[in-house]
Amino acid sequence: MTDTDQPRNLSQKPVIILVGPQMAENIGMVARAMANFGLSELRLVSPRGGWPKKGAHSAASGATHILKDAALYDTAEEAVADLQFVFATTARERGQMKRVYAPAEAALKTIERNTAGQRVGIMFGRERTGLENDEVALADAIITFPVDPDFSSLNLAQAVLLVGYEWYKNVTKEALPFDGEPQTPPANKEMVLSFFEYLESELEAANFYPPDKKPTMTRNMRDIFYRLEMTEQDVRTLRGAVRVLVETRRSRKSQIN
Amino acid sequence: MTDTDQPRNLSQKPVIILVGPQMAENIGMVARAMANFGLSELRLVSPRGGWPKKGAHSAASGATHILKDAALYDTAEEAVADLQFVFATTARERGQMKRVYAPAEAALKTIERNTAGQRVGIMFGRERTGLENDEVALADAIITFPVDPDFSSLNLAQAVLLVGYEWYKNVTKEALPFDGEPQTPPANKEMVLSFFEYLESELEAANFYPPDKKPTMTRNMRDIFYRLEMTEQDVRTLRGAVRVLVETRRSRKSQIN
Q1: Least CB–CB distance from B224: residue in A146, A206, A228
Q2: What is the per-residue pLDDT for B91?
Q3: CA B223, CA B210: separation in Å to the nearest integer?
Q4: Which of B104, B154, B220 minimises the CB distance to A36?
Q5: Domain boundaries, given as residue ranges, for chain B
Q6: Alpha-helix residue ranges (DSSP H) falling in chain A
Q7: Helix (H) or strand (E) holding B77
Q8: How would you class A192 by CB atoms within 10 Å of its CB: exposed for 0-12, middle for 13-18, buried for 19 or more?
Q9: Whether residue A2 has pLDDT greater than 50
Q10: What's the CA dihedral at B32, B36, B41, B47 to 10 degrees?
Q11: Which architecture, in CATH terms, is B12-171?
Q12: What's the CA gap between A72 and A75, in Å, rounded?
């Protein structure tokens, strides 16, 4: 490859996150698919039967360094805490309001974010059941695959392969146009979830949620904020607004007592 | 999908040709990869150990119709005789002067030819050794895969998967199984500005704005919400949340008075 073909900023690459992977062979094949396309950072959330898993190593043949360096987590929430943009791969519509990307568009979004110095992750679910709703809920956006609806099932390594392929294909091209990125970094998931929990506890205290509707309303409101792709400054601003609106109430109450 | 999204001329699809495939499992997985992306015509040239092969059927699970309809040939030359444009997939440069396509470009070329009523085939070689030079020589053009040169080996089914993916994606113009578009229309400016004015008056009343900073803070916060591209439902939800947080304060105040 000539210099103009060199991928920019390849040290910033998307992180591949397998949530609850069941079969050792699949994990090994995921490592190979990653290696095919220049990816190297793998995170494993609660692999069934623990980690390391017998059989992953041989299935990874040649890509075992990726397994060796794989980071282990107990929950998806912990696995995404330091990331600033997260995709969840799903095959079926999940009754949520997140933006849906094809792998090609998701690759462009990933490159845009990585180029701006931000960390991006892509979550893949269990072989048989995919991601749970709570795990999909952590994501900023969905990736789904343009497959024939009559035969839509891709295996885990194939899904990673297509995502890796689109990323590598696009990142080794000429520079992409760069649009006006916000001045502060995007908030990582820990900060975002902390804001949600604060807002929701205040709404709960204010009787915002009719009985039985809280889970749906919570999910829908979080999806509004996920679409915003909040920077750290956005979170501080919105948190400050909520606090001010609410604490004026509290300070008046304490003045009376 | 609307009519304009319908894939054109889907009855003309590329033919997948496996030359000298060795492992039954790979043939089965190729059938699955084809089915994932709406391909159905498979040709097998001298499969090792004959055909049918034990194990192909179970590896094809769900895509066995493709195996059942697969056509058998003794040589690659016989397998491409009726085709009008043929690609050969190779990983390494072969000292030939044929045009080299990436899978995406090859898909566009395939669709162009198929749309013109011409038959197109794509040859894939043996698992360990690929295509022989005489077989590559039969092709009009080469397809090679944009993989990391440090880890370039794709298995047979993965190579077919990537070719099929690019074809299907382009021929259906990426019709995804579902999208995440909001259910209500975007809020018009009157509704958005009304929400802003309401929020800002409540923040003002709560002393959110330090002296002299109100214009800047107002503009920045409005920009946060503009980035959201709020639907009517978003505005109703956010307005409702603000009202509840604030009015609990008012109702307490009036209870005291």
Answers
A1: A228
A2: 84
A3: 19
A4: B154
A5: 12-171, 189-256
A6: 24-36, 56-59, 64-68, 76-80, 103-115, 133-136, 156-171, 189-205, 214-228, 232-256
A7: helix B76-79
A8: buried
A9: no
A10: -20
A11: 3-Layer(aba) Sandwich (3.40)
A12: 9
> Listing from the earlier edge strand, what are the strands of the sheet with B85-89?
B71-73, B42-45, B15-19, B120-124, B85-89, B141-143, B99-101
Q: How far apart are CA B231 and CA B93, in angstroms?
A: 53
Task: Check CB contact under 8 Å for A252 and B248.
Answer: no
- The label of the residue with tokens 């198929």 reads B114
Query: What residues of B are in contact with residue A165 (Cβ under 8 Å)?
Result: 146, 162, 165
Question: Of B42, B21, B5, whose CA–CA distance to B121 is shortest?
Answer: B42
**Who's near A233: CB < 8 A, 6+ residues apart?**
A182, A183, A184
Full-model pTM: 0.80
Nearest-Cα distance to chain A for B30, in Å, is: 12
Q: How far apart (Å, rounded) are the C-alpha atoms in residues A97 and B102? A: 35
Establish whether this prediction's ipTM goes over 0.90: no
Integer angstrom CA distances of residue A118 from A38, A84, A199: 18, 6, 25
Q: Which residues of B touch A173 (CB under 8 A)?
A: none
Assigned CATH topology for domain B189-256: Helicase, Ruva Protein; domain 3 (1.10.8)
Q: Average per-residue pLDDT in chain A?
A: 88
For the stretch B176-225, pLDDT in tens is: 777 665 567 777 778 888 999 999 999 999 999 998 999 889 988 987 88
Question: Exposed (0-12), middle (13-18) or buried (19+): which is B252, by Cβ within 10 Å?
Answer: middle
pLDDT digits (tens, 9 = 90+) for B235-253: 999 999 999 999 876 665 5
In the block, residue with structure tokens 């300070």: A251
pLDDT digits (tens, 9 = 90+) for A153-199: 899 999 999 999 999 999 987 433 343 444 678 888 899 999 999 99
Helices (H) and strands (E) in chain B, counts: 10, 7
